[in-house]
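Appendix B, record 7
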Amino acid sequence: MQKRPTERQAGIVELVRADGFRTIEQLAERFDVTPQTIRRDVNALCDEGLLRRRHGGVEPALEHENIAYRARKVLNVNDKRKIAALVAREIPNGASLFFSIGTTPELVANALLQHRDLRIFTNNLNVAYVAATNDSFEVTLIGGRLRNRDRDVLGPEVEAFFNSYKVDYGIFGVGGIDPDGSLLDFDEQEVRARSAILKNARKSYLVADHTKFGRNAVVRGGSIRDVSAFFIDCPPPDHIAEMITTAGVALHAPEPDADFPTFFISEED
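Structure tokens (predicted):
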């Protein structure tokens, strides 16, 4: 992506995704700007594949691949920060952790910066960059070919990397969560890396905001029933909550009006 979306553009994407369709006039009124300004925003977002034009307005884009990392970093960022703060409360000093690819794991790394003596293993360059700012952390980053668009490494060497260790916690996100509880991603290699994390972590923590439910990622790998704990920004759908309770999965969601510490995602691009 040539340019990270502005805060208003990120808000437009989130609103359209939530509602399914919005007219230009509705968006202009909602954000208190002119229709011309909204059209410029919409054109930029459509050009980047985040939205799709429809007569009189705009609708969510069809997702054949995940959104570029730069754009995802500002989508639902406050919800992801809530998730990250919840995870940080569960991690003790001196723990060892796997981190997967994705923006929510990166925010978890941010939320852990006040910890001490963590050992971190990851294929996520963004996580490694954040974690390296704490001098007490030991960070191990897999070598290999970088996916420039996502700033991560995937492939057979990544599975071997995670299979070489046994750690206390595995932190990972997903592309989507199906109504039947299946965990979904956009790429087979993403699923294999995530499976290796789950297999080699004593506790597996799934971090996902509410927009992942019903998202159109097509590669299936594992179930929400398989994880140790699920961290989300708000209560999940009732049938999902019942599913994970029956499976013995711990559910972590913020209380209404809960106070969370403020921390910021890395602005380096």
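Remarks on this record: Confidence is low (pLDDT under 50) at residues 260-269. The two ends are 11 Å apart (CA to CA).
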